[in-house]
Write a structure and sequence with these properties.
The chain is α/β, with parallel strands linked by helices. 42% of the residues lie in helices and 14% in strands.
């Protein structure tokens, strides 16, 4: 069993994400975020802002019909696509083929924040993953249902997909009890990576990252205040933003976990502990990236 490497500023400086090649937004990549439902519209906003703050040049938001205009108003930097909507207010599977074509022309795709774990989400996620085989991809939250249905879904990709489960989601993915995941999160991350061929970010008080060749890292210096609603959506947004800029899956995963954790630490100091909000995390991202990259 290989050793586990701490995620530190020193480590990240040895694997910096690429600088933009040019002065146009196209040089920083195009992101597609498929996310949200009428009950959880904020997940879209959190992920979009995080992707933009991480430096993505263009962001497209694919959301259910009722969210399209509100999202266009609160994220004026994004192109917003309104999609067919289920009776429960989620993204309907009828959009799958058309949305998959849009995904294939993007540089990085995020699927899942704020989406229900249902058959429509499964169908949409499966279509996007199959169509966009050469596009960097992140599966978060609701999108993880597609892996439970099709274990080999992410195995035939040019580069591994990134998944971001917390303990409860990991338990469902592996068919284990949550207590077993919490007792040995690194072992769970290794098992998920072996089963799905992914870069696995096992979220928790100590976040573990495992890549398909068996190497593993651990980030231990985050802040307890990050255990708050919407925090995971911002992490997913950071990841897809860095992927769009040209970072590989391993680099994007490690940098995002560090930046997310450091943002929590800074906000904790500013607010005197817990109680800061996930919406405040994205504003910390540019300065953290700039300081580490100096």
């Amino acid at each position: 069993m290989q050793s586990v490497t701490p995620v530190t500023e020193h480590l990240l400086r040895s694997m910096a994400p690429p600088e933009p090649d040019g002065d146009s937004k196209d040089s920083r990549g195009r992101v597609l975020i498929t996310a949200g439902c009428t009950g959880l519209p904020g997940a879209v906003l959190l992920a979009a802002n995080a992707a933009l703050r991480a430096g993505a040049g263009k962001v497209q938001l694919a959301v259910c019909r009722d969210l399209a205009i509100p999202m266009g108003l609160v994220v004026p930097e994004a192109l917003v696509v309104g999609l067919p909507q289920t009776e429960d207010g989620g993204i309907g599977r009828a959009c799958a083929d058309g949305l998959a074509s849009r995904a294939a022309s993007s540089d990085a795709v995020l699927i899942g924040p704020g989406m229900a774990e249902d058959a429509d989400t499964e169908a949409v996620t499966t279509a996007l993953v199959h169509k966009a085989r050469d596009v960097a991809i992140v599966l978060d939250a609701g999108a993880l249902i597609a892996l439970r249905a099709e274990t080999d879904l992410t195995r035939t990709r040019r580069e591994p997909a990134i998944i971001t489960p917390h303990a409860g989601e990991m338990a469902q993915l592996l068919g284990l009890e949550r207590e077993a995941i919490e007792a040995d999160p690194l072992a769970a991350a290794r098992q998920a990576t072996e089963r799905f061929g992914t870069v696995t970010i096992m979220k928790g008080g100590r976040t573990h990252i495992v890549v398909p060749d068996g190497r593993a890292w651990c980030y231990e210096t985050g802040h307890v205040g990050l255990a708050t609603s919407g925090s995971g959506d911002t992490l997913a947004g950071i990841i897809v933003g860095l992927l769009a800029r040209g970072a590989g899956p391993e680099t994007a995963a490690l940098w995002s976990v560090y930046v997310h954790g450091e943002a929590g630490r800074r906000l904790g100091r500013r607010y005197g502990g817990i109680g800061y909000l996930a919406r405040e995390i994205p504003n910390e991202i540019p300065s953290i990236l700039a300081e580490v990259l100096v």
